[in-house]
Amino acid sequence: EVQLLESGGGSVLPGGSLRLSCEASGITFRNYAMHWVRQAPGKGLEWVSSIGRRGDRIYYADSVKGRFTISRDDSKNTLSLQMSGLRAEDTALYYCAKAEQPVLTAFDLWGQGTTVIVSS
Amino acid sequence: SYVVTQPPSVSVAPGKTARITCGGNNIGTKSVNWYQQKSGQAPVLLIYYDTDRPSGIPERVSASNSGNTATLTVSRVEAGDEADYYCQVWDSSSDHWVFGGGTKLTVL
Q1: For residue B75, what pLDDT band results from cuts at 50, 70 and 90?
Q2: How far apart are CA A70 and CA A58, in angstroms?
Q3: Which of A28, A49, B62, B65 has the smallest CB count inside 10 Å?
Q4: What is the pLDDT of residues B29-50, one digit of tens each?
Q5: Chain A within 8 Å of B1 (Cβ-Cβ)?
């Protein structure tokens, strides 16, 4: 079955760190660019970060640049998002998604998301 | 950075046509994607490259993009079309993906 499965979410104190993972199955993971998109409770979609095939062409939203790091391990079919310096406004459901290329091409498969709560 | 604007809500009766707009400066020069998100579910790609439908998306879903407005059209609306719809573009000047704020489609 073709799917993306996120994990690693949880509750964390402001200023804390968390590492999200997204495991792909049913696809040749190395052939695709990967993305993280988040959705705060009751709000719209917000793009977070993208990584191209072979780990080149990395992009970040201004709101997370310098605090979040995207990476991929093609041997494990896994996308990661290392989050540090977490703030209350980072509270959201985090989705991973795949695309043919990191730019211009649409996100054609999404996971079900993992929830991050930043609160004291 | 580039901004795309969607109406917060659109309402339509069953069997009628719903049109959801996505406005942005010269958005017609960009490639627009559209996503549908039903309550409690992950987004699903509806339209890519302005007008193309992935396999499994019905022909009654279509889109256009010209000038300062991209439009998603859902014909013969059904109760199952009730969802939030998002447009998306790549902003090459900032190297950012940009989502519209989303439009809630209500089927009356």
Answers
A1: very high
A2: 8
A3: A28
A4: 999 999 999 999 999 999 999 9
A5: yes
CA-based nearest distance A44→chain B, Å: 6
User: A56 pLDDT exceeds 90?
Assistant: no
Tell if the CB–CB gap between B99 and A44 is shorter than 8 Å: yes
Cβ neighbours, 10 Å, residue A24: 24
Q: Does B9 touch chain A (CB under 8 A)?
A: no
3-state secondary structure chain B: CCCCECCCEEEECCCCCEEEEEECCCHHHCCEEEEEECCCCCCEEEEECCCECCCCCCCCEEEEEECCEEEEEECCCCHHHCEEEEEEEEECCCCEEEECCCEEEEEC
| B36 to chain A, closest Cα gap in Å | 11
